[in-house]
Design brief:
Blueprint (H helix, E strand, L loop, with lengths): L1 H25 L5 H18 L14 H7 L3 E7 L2 E12 L13 H9 L4 E6 L5 E7 L1 H17 L6 H8 L7 H11 L4 H4 L8 H8 L8 H11 L2 H14 L8 H12 L1 H12 L6 H15 L4 H17 L3 H11 L6 H4 L11 H17 L2
Antiparallel strand pairs: 1-2, 1-3, 3-4
Helix pairs in contact: 1-2, 1-18, 2-18, 6-7, 9-10, 10-12, 11-12, 12-13, 12-14, 13-15, 14-15, 14-16, 16-18
């Protein structure tokens, strides 16, 4: 393993030296073979160099809708009349199950709830290896929603973020049924921010603040921060500002990326400069944590005004001047959004000997090469 890492490190140096040489001679982007070589090595070492997932340092959970779109067997079950502790399928929404045997018992909570609501049921799905999984409880509101999902499943499977899927659940965001409302929040939490930011937020800031203060709603903190940022109210500004200052003193936070995105949405260039002061100027802040802040800036760089983009580029380049390996964070987040606007400025970091570690140099080199290719 040590020999492999040494060989890769030497190869990085050769590739980047050759990349700079070709650029000076031709005035163009690095050669195609060098680019391909860089990409190949990136795939080889990505398990080593990958940081935490940042703005979703946090990863959205698989929702009932995901199960219903992609599972081969979906069914509605109730307690077996002959044995109230066992489930029996009463309806298949998709597929069939040859043996029909559901291998787990009806717990006491579901047994009493289902006994008092004879039209309700439990939604089951088969996982990738053919095992039954309980994916939800179906009351009247859920059954109506499930009918919609089944009807639209073919179309929704065509895209990762199908607009109609998003619009459907945006309409459920303030549904009076708490479980339906939570499912809607899970769904709208999955879409790119560009799509979310166009949504009409029908929650009041009071409702969002109440949810943020509830431990039972902890899983919804990221989407609640994003929604709060879109409300634009004075209460939202006060809460988000306070959270940003608090999170600066924490080792990590799953909600940092969402809170930072909301902060920039609310305060624009002022937020960008304050984030640089609180986070980038502090040498004790771990880079894995700071990638959440970088990601929020990358998101807004692609959506904001020219003044906002300029402010973001300025603070990020100052960040790299203070901590050169931060260039890898910037390269990864901007590349993920196919935003090549800062690539040529980051190229300067490759010419500073001894500042970038091999993995950072690789990431930045790939991003710079892509930036040059995109501008031709």
């Amino acid at each position: 393993m040590v020999a492999l890492q040494t060989e890769q490190s030497g190869l990085f140096k050769v590739l980047f030296r050759r990349s700079r040489f070709n650029s000076r001679r031709t005035g163009g982007s690095p050669g195609l073979m060098i680019f391909v070589g860089l990409m190949a090595i990136w795939f080889l070492v990505s398990p080593v160099v990958a940081f935490s997932c940042s703005f979703h340092n946090y990863k959205p959970t698989k929702t009932l809708v995901d199960w219903m779109l992609y599972s081969d067997v979906i069914a509605l079950a109730r307690p077996d009349p002959e044995n109230g502790f066992k489930y029996r399928v009463v309806k298949f929404y998709r597929g069939q199950d040859a043996d029909g045997d559901i291998p787990f018992l009806v717990d006491s909570t579901f047994r009493h709830r289902l006994a008092n609501n004879p039209e309700d049921g439990v939604i089951l799905a088969k996982d990738g290896v053919g095992r039954w999984v309980i994916i939800g409880y179906a009351d009247r509101d859920h059954r109506s929603l499930i009918d919609v999902i089944v009807k639209k499943a073919v179309d929704w499977r065509e895209e990762a973020y199908h607009p109609d899927r998003f619009e459907t659940f945006a309409d459920y965001q303030d549904h009076p049924n708490l479980r339906v409302r939570r499912l809607a929040l899970q769904e709208i939490d999955r879409v790119p921010y560009a799509m979310l930011s166009d949504m009409e937020v029908r929650f009041s800031d009071r409702e969002i603040l109440k949810s943020l203060g509830s431990w039972s709603e902890f899983a919804y903190r990221p989407i609640n921060f994003l929604l709060l940022g879109l409300t634009g109210t004075p209460a939202a500004r006060t809460l988000v500002q306070r959270q940003i200052e608090t999170m600066a003193n924490l080792d990590t936070s799953e909600s940092l990326g969402a809170a930072t995105t909301a902060y920039i949405e609310l305060e624009g260039t002022g937020a960008v400069r304050n984030l640089a002061r609180l986070y980038f100027s502090d040498p004790t802040q771990p880079l894995g944590k700071l990638e959440s802040v970088v990601e929020a800036m990358a998101i807004h760089s692609g959506l904001g005004s020219q003044d906002l983009k300029t402010a973001i580029q300025e603070v990020l380049l100052e960040f790299v001047a203070q901590r050169p390996n931060a260039a890898a964070l910037i390269a990864r987040q901007f590349s993920a959004r196919q935003d090549w606007s800062i690539g040529l400025q980051l190229e300067k970091s490759l010419d500073l000997p001894g500042t970038l570690n091999p993995s950072s140099r690789l990431l930045v080199g790939v991003y710079v090469a892509q930036s040059r290719a995109a501008q031709q």
